[in-house]
Amino acid sequence: MSSYSDDRLVAYLDGEIDKDEQLEIEAWLDNDPVARDKLAALATSGQLLREAYEEVVREPLPDRLIAAARGERPPPVTARVLPFTPRRVSAPAGLRQRWRVALPIAASLFGLLAGGSVAYFGLDRAIPIGMAGSSTASTTEATLANNLWLDNAAGDFKLFVGTGGKALIDVPATGDSHEALQKISQSLTQQVRLPDLKPWGLSFSGARLVVVDGRPAAQLVYTTDNKAIGPLALIIGSSKQPDVPPAFDRRQGVNMLYWRHQGRAYVLVGQADVGYLWGIGNDVAWQLDAI
Amino acid sequence: MSLTRRLGASPAGVAADADPVVTRFDDQLIAVLPRLRRFARGLTGSVVEADDLVQAACERALARRHQFQEGTRFDSWMFRIVQTIWIDQLRARAVRKEESEVVEARAGSDEPMRRVEARLTLSEVRRAVDRLSPEQRAALLLVTVEGLSYKEAAEVIQVPVGTVMSRLARARLALQTQLEGGGGLIGSTRNVELQ
């Protein structure tokens, strides 16, 4: 029975060898308990290594890095950013620019909600007749649907905040939060799972039904005393549009992280800055297997 | 696979599409920041140095954004920038680095209680990574933590795949040896079943 170099053993562990060699190594491992122990220890150290650095990606991004990524002048470094410390919530210049673009679309909250009803009853009625049936029409339709959805999501969130975070919860999370989810899920085509955002200091407050892309969707509301993060809404709806990777947007003065995955559309809405939203979005996707 | 990595890879790994929510260059950059910070944290072993490194990488990326090839992995491109800047910094600060390592090692031996506590935490693992050579550390972080393939890691580090393989093996064995000697973290879980 041949033995294998450490290089090959590690490569086996990393899935970097071909099938034939994999079978040979497995046969060797079957007959060599010392090698098995070595492999198990290597696997364990690899797992420990991943765990040792996992917390870094959950940390809020320092403002200076966000500024650097946006090509802005970094703020003076007077203190180190720690998790869950108050942060500025005003939009970076790039986002303010987008806000100015979005302003004419925004009109008013109730106007947007009315616009959402257009999507609810069929977008084709809102598209010029001459465009119907063309590829441009489908692109326009998708664009309109997304704009309406994101505008509605922003409007719903503002309405929620405007009422003090109480009036717009159909099913409050009193006691068993899963019971609230069950009730909401009865109106949806798929069961909604509840991401646990306690590591971010966010508590599930309740859920309500909203309309997304003409279909009912669940809006999960999380609150916290930390105004740099919450309140926060996660909307989960179904979608027939293709998957898109997470992307940031800002509408009506609130930040959004939006993505679609396997027939579901997700949007995180809140006043938290994009660094927090990104970290929380990571967490949500991890828990819901939504990416 | 780390699911954080999965989310991190999506916006960074593809070019922006025609979605109304346009994924701009700086959005891609922000999206990959958490992983850049993690990579940099592993390389430098320091929160502040890591963020300085990532900030420098962002500035360089923006200055050279025209060099990024659409359709290639944005995250790998950024890892390469971080790696390049870090190597440059190591070369420029070689003397200072050696001095700080001596100070750190001495501090560790003078604080047995702190060391005992560290054994119970994952900080021991990070400390073990700090003791690896810079070359081994980069290969280990890219493959084992960031989930890059050997080929992708080789492109980031700009060495042959075989070199990545050997550096990685040495790094994994050295890490394991340090952990076994340092606190029994591995020994206590030696019987873990492999999948």
- The total tally of domains of chain B equals 2
Described by the principal axes of the CA atoms, the overall outline of chain A is elongated
Strand content of chain B: under 5%
Under the CATH scheme, the architecture of the largest domain in chain A is 2-Layer Sandwich
Please identify the top-level CATH class of the largest domain in chain B.
Mainly Alpha
Number of strands of chain A: 7
From the N-terminal CA to the C-terminal CA of chain B, the straight-line distance is 13 Å
By helix and strand content of chain B, what is the structural category? mainly alpha
CATH topology-level fold name of the largest domain in chain B: Rna Polymerase Sigma Factor, Chain: A
Main sheet of chain B, how many strands, which sense, barrel? none
Low-confidence stretches of chain A: 77-136
Order of helices and strands of chain B: HHHHHHHHHH
What's the arrangement of strands in the largest beta sheet of chain A? 1-2-3-4-7-6-5
Explain this structure to me?
The complex is a heterodimer of chains A (291) and B (195). Chain A is of the alpha+beta class. Chain A has two domains: 6-57, no CATH class; 93-288, MucB/RseB, C-terminal domain (Phosphorylase Kinase, domain 1, 2-Layer Sandwich). Helix content of chain A is 44%, strand content 18%. Chain A contains nine helices and seven strands. In chain A, strands 1-2-3-4-7-6-5 form a seven-stranded antiparallel sheet, with helices on both faces. Chain A is elongated and about 70 Å long. Chain A starts with 5 loop residues before the first helix and ends with a helix. With 195 residues, chain B is an all-alpha fold. Chain B folds into two domains: 1-92, RNA polymerase sigma factor, region 2, helix turn helix motif (Rna Polymerase Sigma Factor, Chain: A, Orthogonal Bundle); 109-188, Winged helix-like DNA-binding domain superfamily/Winged helix DNA-binding domain (Arc Repressor Mutant, subunit A), CATH 1.10.10. Chain B is 73% helix and 0% strand. Chain B has ten helices and no strands. The two termini of chain B are 13 Å apart.
